[in-house]
Amino acid sequence: MRLSYPSNIKVIQVPCTGRVDILHLLNAIENGADGVYVAGCLEGECHYLTGNIKTRKKVNYVKKILQEIGIEPERVEMFSLSSAMGLKFAEIAREMNEKIKTLGPTPVRKKEAA
Amino acid sequence: MIVADRKSLEEILSMIKDYKNIMVLGCKGCVTVCNVGGEKEVSILASALRIARQKEGREINIDTKVIERQCDNEYVAQLKETVGNYEAVVSMACGVGPQFLSEAYREQKFYPAVNTTFFGGAVTHGIWEERCAGCGTCIIHDFDGLCPVARCAKSLLHGPCGGSSKGKCEISKETICIWDSIVSKKMEQGRLNDLLKVRAVKDWRTARDGGPRRSIREELTQ
Amino acid sequence: MSEINSENNVKPEGDFKSGSNLEKVLRAGHFAFTGECGPPKGANVHHLVEKFHHLKGNVDAVNITDNQTAVVRMSSLAASHLMIDHGLEPNFQMVCRDRNRLAITSDILGAYALGIRNMLCLSGDHQSFGNHPEAKNVHDIDSMQLINLVTTMRDKEEFLNGEKIDVAPKLFVGAACNPFADPFEYRVYRLANKIAAGADFIQTQCIYNMDKFRTFMKQVVDMGLHEKCYILAGVTPMKSARMASFMGKMVPGMDVPESLINRLKGAEKGKQAEEGIKFALEQIEEFKEMKGVAGVHLMAIEWEQMVPEIAERAGMLPRPVV
Ligand code: SF4
Ligand code: SF4
Predict the structure, then answer these.
(1) Nearest to residue C128, comparing CAs of B170, B202, A63, B44?
(2) Which of C16, C77, C168, C222 is exposed most, by the fewest CB atoms within 10 A?
């Protein structure tokens, strides 16, 4: 199945969203990502029971941290969908892409050795 | 264990606002167990601080390290070689940590990243509660192991007060009235008489009121 | 005042504990009637004296609250003294929240020196209820130990540390009792405990749930506690159905039955306050007959002007002179 989603999104596969850690999300932001989101299974459908629910809490925690330091928390999100929902995946990707575009580039920029 | 909460990033950022090169130092003791100052939390804090400073356009170098226990000079001594490489050190240990560090390294500056809250434990995942106030003269044998000094909002030794309602303390519906628990347990066990005496007033000298405390174990001193 | 002289050191006559008016009234077997007065949120003596006028001659003694609900007010000690100056008898309240044993002891001595003869020992509402929730609380000793402390000062003429007191304070000592706090089965034992600690009289929390209070008093009488101590039943007339439901919901340890709220709601427009007073009068009538009840403690909170009328309609006047 070929689905088009914005090419500026880098997909990182994990066995379960439960594997995604607060630090992974923060590191993405720290390294200059304009946004980062987790696409997890539908609630109640986690193969490892609660991986997706725990991760939603982690995502919320990261949002809190960003809020505290004055960065739009919307740059980090979590979505729930099943692996059979390819169209939805693409739709979410476009939606997130749009949202980040309205927010503009991340204020977190490493000083390049310019 | 000793329980703590991380300070707000805003407060920590203001402590380190003048520095460009710091160390965030965790502890593998209590604060690791209560998920506030162990390996993981140290990395998270370091990352969050870096992000905040990058955003301000004032990048900061943050190295992280976690030692066995910051309340033990033996482990604190392990920092000897590295502690001088930074402008300041932010400690994620309980309030004891920064003090052992400060006493060991006079030339360095230490800042706490946590608010040390109480002696307690996790009642369920993610929720900790106070159990002891370290009063120095434990009396909970009289109360079936439940402590009114730490857990009654008024440290009553004869409770429950008139504000006790449906097992909850007058201060909030989230706080149990420990005196309700003490009395209920005694009644269930038919030992209510244990409570029906007027206790001598407590000697607070062994608590913080007597000044800073010290414990000497002759057999261990060198 | 020049009248404050060594007269205040005179020992009570006979075997009276303090010889206060309240003690004499109770001892003589009269049905006692006490009132309550909160000092002003400021040093406004005028305001305080106005309240005195409503109470004077209508009650046997008046409780002066001590930073009630943890809201800062003029000190209960000073207000009690002002009350004496105006010819009323104070019941000096003291909470354990704000003073350690040193301050407690010296305030007791000071109270006695100023002519105060009744004292009520309380734990005190937690400071989180008040207007200085950031405060450090003291609770060096608790209300049970406070009763014991002040009666030891009186009877053994000794300080807590065993040292002798040069002119010991002779006070008639009261304590509070809330039959409506939980666990209910324990409440009578807690009362027994306070009596064992030395309480001469008890003033209860405001009573609204009469069924529960009757059960409680039966327990009290069965245990013979009413013979060891005078029990004054607490009455606070409701001004409105709103006040009733607020108190029931918001005040910890306050039991306001739905039936009372409905009764007030059912009153004619503008007549809720009168209905509240009627309920209070019915209560007082019943207390007069209730075994073990030695009097009524009327807490007309910020409604002192109603005291003369309530006293009159309750048949409490004139107050006995003993
Ligand atoms: S009585 Fe004192 S030492 Fe014992 S648990 Fe309570 S506070 Fe801790
Ligand atoms: S309600 Fe219970 S825990 Fe709270 S202050 Fe009163 S006795 Fe203590």
Answers:
(1) B170
(2) C222
What is the rounded average pLDDT for all residues in chain C?
95
Decide if B27 contacts B38 (C-beta within 8 A): yes
Number of domains in chain A: 1
Largest Cα separation within chain C, whole Å, is 62
Q: Is any Cβ of chain B less than 8 angstroms from the Cβ of A33?
A: no
**Can you say whether residue A15 is alpha, beta or left, with left for phi > 0 and alpha for psi between -120 and 50 degrees?**
alpha
Cα C310 to averaged position of ligand 2 atoms, centre (Å): 34
Residues of chain B with Cβ-Cβ distance to A70 below 8 Å are 52, 55
Q: How many helices (H) and strands (E) does chain B have?
A: 7, 7
- Domain extent, residue A69, equals 17-103
Q: Given this model, what pLDDT does residue A48 score?
A: 81
Residue B32 pLDDT > 60, yes or no? yes
Amino acid identity, residue B78? Q
Q: Determine, for residues C193 and B195 on separate chains, whether the beta-carbon distance falls below 8 Å.
A: yes
Contact B48, A69 (CB under 8 A): yes
Residues of chain C with pLDDT under 70: 1-7
Quick check: is A61 in a domain? yes
Question: Position C116: which residue type?
Answer: I
B chain contacts of residue A29, beta-carbon cutoff 8 Å:
51
Is residue C123 helix, strand or coil? coil
The C-alpha atoms of residue B100 and residue B91 are separated, in whole angstroms, by 11
How buried is residue B218: exposed, middle or buried, by Cβ count under 10 Å (0-12/13-18/19+)? exposed
Domains and their CATH numbers in chain C: 30-313 (3.20.20.220)
Q: Is A69 on the interface with B (CB under 8 A)?
A: yes
Q: Whose CA is nearest to atom 7 of ligand 1?
A: B133
Rounded Cα–Cα distance for residues B130 and C56 (Å): 49
Tell how far CA B52 is from the center of its chain.
27
| Assembly ipTM | 0.93
Identify whether A9 is part of a domain: no
In chain B, residues with a C-beta closer than 8 Å to the C-beta of C176 are 162
Domain covering B2-117, topology: Rossmann fold (3.40.50)
Q: With a cut of 70, which residues of chain A have pLDDT below it?
A: 1-2, 111-114
Ligand 1 atom at minimal distance to the Cα of residue B133 = 7
CA neighbours within 13 Å on the CB side: how many for C200? Answer: 25
